[in-house]
Amino acid sequence: MSQECEFVQEPHKLLVIPGPIEVTDEVLYANAHPSMSHMSPDFASVFGDCIRMTRQILYSEDAQPFLIAGSGTLGWDQVSANLVEPGENALVLHSGYFADSFADCLQTYGANVDQVKAPIGDAVKESDVETALKSKKYKVVTVTHVDTSTGVLSNIKGVAEVTRRVSPDTLVVVDGVCSVASEEIRMDDWGIDIVITASQKGLGTPPGLSILVASQRAMKVFQNRKTPITSYYASWKKWLPIMHAYEKNSAAYFATPPVNLIYAYHTSLRQIVQGPVSLEDRFKAHKNASRRVKDVVAALGLRCVPLSEDVSANGMTAIYFPDGLAASDIIPRLLKKDVVVAGGLHASIKEKYFRIGHMGATAVDIERGDIDRVIVALNEALAEAKASKA
């Protein structure tokens, strides 16, 4: 990472949950930028850069980014309000907790939702996607790239290929909140219409920015809709002129953007797309970090939630507790070693597992030693927990 920043964060507990994640000194310092007018030319040029660099991360030439104050959840609202008209069908591929939430959001806006559910720890098979798409006409098919509740990685390229072949008018919507910048996504080449994400995970920025990127095909569907948009704040009719203006380095106003967060996001994007580590090498670094953590998990005799390596995320690891141990035996011990991990989230197995994030600087900047700290702490905590039961 760049050493230009003289600001250094205070010592703190290592945050290795699946988001928010550790951010670099430069990003945190940029978030402390002096207050700026969101209408100023200086800020407009920074916002414009963010729009252009967001495309680069997804390997897209002409997709339309929307950078809006909010969490990743706002992306679901944008899809539901702008692309799916009331009474239209939506197909949700279920690999964990967040598919249920996306389905709930779509239903809230009047969509008819069907789900194809994979067993816990697995992704939906492409053959099952094909069968579902042949059963009726769907406006969208949604797939969670990495479901944070299970650590399952879905094959979004395969889902897009099946959709294009079987139901070419159906839009492919990827929930990439826990995958963008830690997993490869080639939006144009793979035929993906929407990528939803947020600032606080692989993009290495504090939380608070909802990021959605829409293909030109999706934008045409939006422009040709027959019924009114069913949201005010999430309406692309409101936001599209704003994004166009800022990309031309000219300010415009609908609602106040999170100015300081945009400065932080700009700094992180520059580190990702213009830094010494290429995007391709960044993805390799996440795979290497993931492999290290998962090898240690296996060596300790523990079992991951994903059923196979093929469906295992590279930015996080979900781990079952060993027999006889629970969250209260492991997580507080890790916390005492200044390592913050996350408990379970999936309702069916919530008390049976915990989750470790290894995204962004933690995975890419080896000199930080974050992965080493996690491994040492995990070994010690497990040994101490077992000894306490002996």
From TrEMBL:
Keywords: Aminotransferase, Pyridoxal phosphate, Transferase. GO terms for biological process: glycine biosynthetic process, by transamination of glyoxylate. Substrate binds at residue 355. The keyword Ribonucleoprotein does not apply. It is an enzyme of class 2 (transferase). It holds the Pfam family Aminotran_5. Residues 28-349 form the Aminotransferase class V domain. It comes from the Eukaryota. One of its GO terms (cellular component) is peroxisome. SUPFAM superfamilies: PLP-dependent transferases. The keyword Transferase applies. Belongs to the class-V pyridoxal-phosphate-dependent aminotransferase family. This is alanine--glyoxylate transaminase. It comes from Pisolithus tinctorius Marx 270. The lineage of its organism: Eukaryota, Fungi, Dikarya, Basidiomycota, Agaricomycotina.
